[in-house]
Design goal:
By secondary structure, the chain is an alpha/beta fold. It has two domains: about 110 residues, Aspartate Aminotransferase, domain 1, CATH 3.90.1150.10; about 260 residues, Type I PLP-dependent aspartate aminotransferase-like (Major domain) (Aspartate Aminotransferase, domain 2, 3-Layer(aba) Sandwich). The strands form three sheets. The chain has a seven-stranded mixed β-sheet, with helices on both faces. Helix 10 packs across helix 11. The longest helix is centred in the last third of the chain and has 21 residues. It is globular, with a radius of gyration of 22 Å.
Length: about 375
Amino acid sequence: MNPGDLFDLPEDIVFLNTAYMGPALRPAREAGIEAVAKLSNPLNFKAPEFFDPPTRVRKLFAQVIGCDDPDRIALTPSCSYGMANAARQIHPSRHNNIVVAEGQFPSNFFIWKRLAEESGCELRRVPPPNQSEGRGRLWNQSILNAIDANTLLVAIAPLHWADGTVFNLRAIREKTLGSRALLIVDGSQAVGAMPISVQELKPDALICAGYKWLFGPYGTGYAYYSDYFDGGTPMEENWIIRENSDDFQNLLNYNPNHWPKGKRYSSGEHSAPIHIAMQEVALKQLLDWGPERIQAYTGELFEPFEDRFRELGCQLEEKAFRANHMFGIRMPEGVDLQKLKARLEEARVVVSFRGSALRISLHFFNKKNDLERLYDCIRTQVTG
């Protein structure tokens, strides 16, 4: 089966916006509907349903990120929840600094801003260079330069959520190890679409939303926590993160111990049957595809158009610092972005405008004709 056939997008739209929200896979949608029907009779939801499906989902996500220990995975309702759990375990002093990329997603910014304000440490926001040529390379170098002996942690993503600029996490990890700083990664726009291995990168935490490139329902997320977070205090004291919580008869004995490792940071009601059923199906499909295949397909899809966009005067990041599945196109000076937005909406081309960039995100359901329609809309606005 063609991978694109697993989606059910309207035929009259060009959807270039998985970075906003991934469309549900047909098999995942069917699994969700089946779960809804099952809940018509609560007797169908027996005790093992609270534990067995989440265990399978943790194992699947662990495979997606190259983790050999599923107990290091927490199931969360959002990326921000996973970030909050991480931040609660970190205790800066006034001489420390926290490094972030300027303009990174709010869920991976405000939590560190609050931590810096509460502790009195410095929050270093590293801006991109004010130039288009070599932008990604220079921005990466500025981030590396911002890390010093007083850096407590670097919170960053594999690529910028607004324009797809790729950050060299391997180089950043090497620098943080030399400074004994933590590396907290927001993988929301990368995990599932590009190869990421926690065994190779060795981040202290990798946290992501589940409704974009992982094709789970909105309200789902995942978090990997390294041994730095072992024994920490979770954000909430729900019943299911306690040791032996599967022994319902003894819940009133109030076991004081949490499950070990990252599993202790899972949110209450993470066994939600509709969510977990859809997540399991989606993760299995992603593992069948493999992120390498997604990168290869989307790269080949856009390659014939790159020079055509540049010839219009559009700015694109150089390939070494641009992901294939998600990237930004900046318009030539003088193009009215509001008029371009209206033109795209009229042509039923679905994209996102983020900052100064028109953000494009591609997947298996996209074809050459989709990019042709996008190109025609932009060409019309550029050439008048």
